[in-house]
Task: structure prediction
Amino acid sequence: MSDFAEWLEEELKQRGWVANEIAIRGGIHSGYLSRILNHKQNAGPEALIQIAKALGYPPEIVFRAAGLLPPKPENVPLLDEWEHIFRQAASDEERQRLLELARFELERIKREQKRK
Result:
């Protein structure tokens, strides 16, 4: 995608949504969203946060798509989403459980790979 509006259009397409769905879910004025999608206005930081909320993404993903954050130096697909899930845990105990599950799964994957 060469720009944010195209990226956002692709996100809508993948979900089978119309633009109004993001406006409703993110609490964004539909006219403002329309101007963003029609390349007439850039999305500001608050709108990007609202779009991230509507899409269920961590804000970093949307800010990167808008060109306001540099790309991650390493190519680790889904890392932002993993961090977002981890941060949603309500307590240290829940975060510890998530880490334990991830470690267990990683060890299982490594054992499987050795068998091949």
Notes: The longest helix spans residues 92-115. The mean pLDDT is 90. DSSP finds seven helices and no strands in the chain. The two ends are 37 Å apart (CA to CA).
